[in-house]
Design a protein that fits this description.
Largest sheet: 4 strands, mixed
Helix content: 25-40%
Strand content: 15-25%
CATH class: Alpha Beta
Length: 125
């Protein structure tokens, strides 16, 4: 994956398991998200369709965020997008009722998890 699909600040915050630093990284930097379908190359305003995980046992929906495209498990859709803090705020704001959990680097190397409300508070601070 290209180096541009990485947030160094988020990676370092997750490495230290520092929620304040994670909040700062999410507010000020981009986040890697898996895509079901990437946007068309000739339309940079179309970021594509974000992939979310639905638990087969509970039906609960989770948003997966990554500090680096290389941390995305291979069993997820192959495409990724690099999304801004304003995109993350808008996406969670629009979907906070249906998303129950946000996982950051779920497969490691330094995973964390938060509720959408916690991420929204971090983005709004």
């Amino acid at each position: 994956m290209a180096a541009r699909f990485r947030s160094q600040a988020l990676a370092e915050a997750l490495e230290h398991q520092d929620m304040a630093a994670v909040a700062l990284a999410l507010r000020n930097g981009n986040t890697v998200v898996p895509l079901v379908k990437p946007g068309p190359r000739d339309n940079p305003l179309d970021a594509g369709e974000v992939w979310t995980y639905r638990s087969p046992e509970t039906g609960e929906l989770a948003l997966l965020l990554f500090s680096d495209a290389r941390n995305k498990p291979a069993n997820l859709p192959p495409s990724v997008g690099l999304q801004s803090p304003s995109w993350l705020r808008a996406f969670l704001g629009a979907n906070a009722e249906i998303i129950t959990t946000v996982f950051l680097d779920i497969a490691g190397p330094h995973p964390m998890q938060a509720t959408p409300a916690e991420i929204l508070r971090a983005l709004d601070a």
